[in-house]
């Protein structure tokens, strides 16, 4: 089966129409239509419903869709591995990672790995909720994220990352170092969906300001302006504004960070994941 047809199908479903898919694929709309007709002939069933409002999967297409996604990823990895062998094993390891990981311990891990594997090279993409999608669509070779985002994947824990309260400097007495989650919930909470605080805090404030961004600096700036408080994992607490304070939360919430692999990972990705698991042996707290 031609992997171009599968890619064209998935692009058509993502964009919602043959015309938009043609633009992204840099071909004509009739070429996309022909590929879809040919793919349906090969599969011997209709997988797309066409209408003036766009395209959508038929019931048979819904059944086949996960397999088609998996097939495209497998064919892409096959081509990547073949190129790797033809280039003498110089594979590029494509990593999808939380920003907090990429700005803290990941650079040191990459340097340590390259010290043992001088020909290894890396391509890094920053993401949060989109990491599983990138992995499924073969945009990355492995993902570095928490257990919540990577659930359902081949995920291996590496380390705990506790959450701390971040408050305006003048909000609480200077001698106070710890705040209970119940007391913390009395203040307006500034949170972003990407931070997944609802999955980590036992008690949430009824007053919430939601920021549709995964940029921690934007949230910290709002806290510094006195709009509320927030909670952030330790790895995100770098270069804080001077008018903010960090307190320990009680009980201490935490996320578990780890590495996720696709069902059929490349050899290079497997080797780097094994290196990370050796460098950061996880001990559950």
What is the number of helices?
Answer: 10
The radius of gyration computed from the alpha-carbon positions, rounded to a whole number of angstroms, is 23 Å
Low-confidence stretches: none
| Large-scale geometry | globular
Q: Determine the structural class based on helices, strands and strand pairing.
A: alpha/beta
Q: Write out the CATH superfamily name of the largest domain.
A: Periplasmic binding protein-like II
Mean pLDDT value: 88
Estimate percent helicity: 25-40%
What oligomerization state is this entry in? single chain
**What is the N-to-C succession of helices and strands?**
HHHEEHEHHEHEEEHEEHEEEH
Strand count: 12
CATH class of the largest domain: Alpha Beta
Largest sheet: 8 strands, mixed
Enter the CATH topology name of the largest domain: D-Maltodextrin-Binding Protein, domain 2
Number of domains: 3
For the record, give the distance between the C-alpha atoms at the N and C termini, rounded to a whole number.
48 Å
**Strand content bin:** 15-25%
**Do you know the CATH architecture of the largest domain?**
3-Layer(aba) Sandwich
Give your account of this protein's structure:
By secondary structure, the protein is α/β, with parallel strands linked by helices. It has three domains: 3-85, Arc Repressor Mutant, subunit A (Orthogonal Bundle), CATH 1.10.10.10; 89-158 and 256-279, D-Maltodextrin-Binding Protein, domain 2 (3-Layer(aba) Sandwich), CATH 3.40.190.10; 161-254, D-Maltodextrin-Binding Protein, domain 2 (3-Layer(aba) Sandwich). It is built from ten helices and twelve strands. It has helices at residues 3-15, 18-25, 29-43, 59-86, 99-102, 106-116, 131-136, 181-184, 216-224, 267-279, and strands at residues 48-51, 54-57, 92-97, 121-126, 142-146, 154-168, 178-180, 189-191, 208-210, 230-233, 244-250, 254-261. Strands 3, 4, 5, 6, 7, 10, 11 and 12 form an eight-stranded mixed sheet that branches. It starts with a helix and ends in a 6-residue tail after the last helix.
